[in-house]
Write a structure and sequence with these properties.
Rossmann fold; GMP Synthetase, Chain A, domain 3; 15 helices; four-stranded parallel sheet; eight-stranded mixed sheet; alpha/beta
Length: about 550
Amino acid sequence: MSERNPLILANLIHSWCDKAPDRDILTFVNIDENGQFQDETRTYQQLWENGQRLAAWLQGQGMTRGDTFAIVMLNHPEFVDLMVASSILGTVFVPIDARTRGDKLKYMLDFAECKGAVVGDGALAEVEAVWRENTGKWIATITPGEAGHPNLSTVLAGPVQAPELAVMSTDPSAPMQLLYTSGTTGDPKAIMSAHKRYGLAALLTPTLGLTGEDRPYTGLSLTHANAQILTLGMVLHTGMRGVISRKFSKSRLWDITREYGCTFFNLLGGMTTAIYAEPPRGDDTDNPVRAILSAGMPAAIWEDFARRFDVKLFEFYGAAEGGLTFNPSGVGPVGSCGKAPPTLQLAVLDEEGNPTAPGVAGEICFREADGGCPELTYFKNTEATAKKTGGGWLRMGDIGHLDEDGWLFFHYRIGGGIRKNGDFINCAFVEKALSEIDSISDVFVYGLEVSEGLAPGEKEIIGAVVPINHDDFDVAAVFQTCGEKLDRNSVPDYIQVLDEIQKTASEKPQERFLIDAFEANPTNVYAAPANAKAAPHKPTCQK
């Protein structure tokens, strides 16, 4: 028998079956309608056998090496079963957030040339609707009782085919999946993500100080690189017993970690502010978590967050396309995303492609330690690929700066900063002030050109908030608190009151939906008293 290459997922699972077949490597948690935890586990042996069952079933649907199919669901065990099956068969899976709807869903399915889709969590009707005229497409469900389509529970309850299928994925550089970007500014791009990239996730384990005794947790969607490649990848490679919730719950996060003894988890962007905005509890420090890996922990709440929950914070920066920096706990300055690992070069470049001086902002860029450009291919999009890797650098599309010691500080996404009265606004400070108000449960701050007469490139500050109780929410008090805590230029010009802040699969607030809601529903938008005359078509804070 030839040696199994562990950079291929199916080989990795098969090899672990030889060492620890019954290890409960994954626990999936769902919060039922009564608020109780319902869980389901997967051992390495179950992953392998389910992968074999599903690979044989996919083969029966006409799927062959290189064909694509979609996985449209929340975090279920079947998601990982299908990943293993795809690796066995040599197909390419396309993870899609179950909340995706309409034209965007149709675009993602058709652009990736999916021959079929496995769906759950209410996505069936949406996939049926966009594929109504594509009679050649197959659809399967994970939920029993969905009429008219095969159900994978029947497949998984059946026998494993004998003899077992050989692992047909052999090239670590071949695409394992088409991983879509968030698409917050246009149609999402599909990254051709190779097997080897998933297989290298375990190399991050010592950097994070994790051992075999740790128990990582994630509530992020497995359709996103952070949960699927970073958390799940590390767990499957190292044998750490991981916990995955069906979806993220900021109010039950710490309860989950207590129930399952989780010692480590990841946070992205707005998740940190949302958790910090939860009302403080007497048992906030009573949790087993010793470390959190955060991307975008605001400097304004960094130390307060660590102290409130008694955790160490590791900050990182990266994207699904690549690029990586780390700021280990207690090593780099608060607010910094860190430094690049030895395998990468990090630079902040100006518009001419030259490195900026310390403290001077520019675009964050990466290349390999030997000077080569990181591998990246967008599926059927050579123009976007060339732009992303222009000049031999992986260009992140983000603005930041390096300090005198080479520590990276993130500023904003290109096109996403707020400049007001000549100054760039630190949204983190505004979000901190809002999130510490007891009546607010979630917050996001963004910029928008509302009033006439603004200087070119300048925006007004919109504080989008979700009240704990709409009936007695006092917007005037919110403005008053902001005025007391923030400098005058940073006080929100408008408070936008919402039932929820829509977010991507990576829990990133979707600014374009907030802007649409701002324009379409002005009765939920309250202007600061000083702005009432500037925008008379908007209501003031006096209800």
